Structure prediction request, 256 residues.
Amino acid sequence: MRGWVPVRFDPWAHRLHAALRPLLRLVARGDRRLCGVCGARCRRFLRHRTRDEVVCPVCLSHGRHRIAWRWLVDRSGLDRGGPRVLHLAPEPELARRLRELGDLRVVSGDLTSPLAGLRIDLTALGLRDEAFDAVLCSHLLEHVPDDRAAIRELYRVLAPGAWALIQVPLPSGRPVTDEAPDVVCPEERTRRFGQPDHCRLYGLDLVDRIRAAGFDVELLEARDLFAAEELSRQALRADEPLFVARKPAASGKEER
Prediction:
């Protein structure tokens, strides 16, 4: 692969977290909540910013991670054929669990995260064309000024028939994306887009941006993957969206 710089990886924080997990499971133990990522049964999840009951106290997964993991386990097919996976801005617990899905060849990348193996820019990945069978891209596009260029890059590095799992912050039922490139004030960005480092607040029209890059798009909601009781126990928003973007298979070639 070309155009990347290795990132130093410090394992100490992960070793400490792994050492504390048995204690965390014991302290948080209860029956009200279940984390679908690490399997912890807890009395309650932790608060995140302005929302209660979001974060698993054992593995620190959010609802979006629990939704993504369910799709990966049930529908991704990653347990077949040693697929090549690009995990962008890798979440520690998902990265760990991915290794349990099968004989995956995982490359992790991010612009700043020390957890990533490669230092890469989402709008110019510097990776070979058609190099991957799957891409995980969660809560990244809202940080990228030119998100259309980023989506085109995802398309370029995927093999025909491969897929990208895309997640973004998206308020319930919001139809249209709100963005204004001239808004650079952190306070105004927070007011309009939710965080000072967000460039936009997406609506369901993100489907159109993904399709414009050439993808076929399946828009799922959490309720499509979980029973009502599971949604409640895992503290999931029923209409939380999950965008599955598939690169059309090449003519005459079998889909991966």
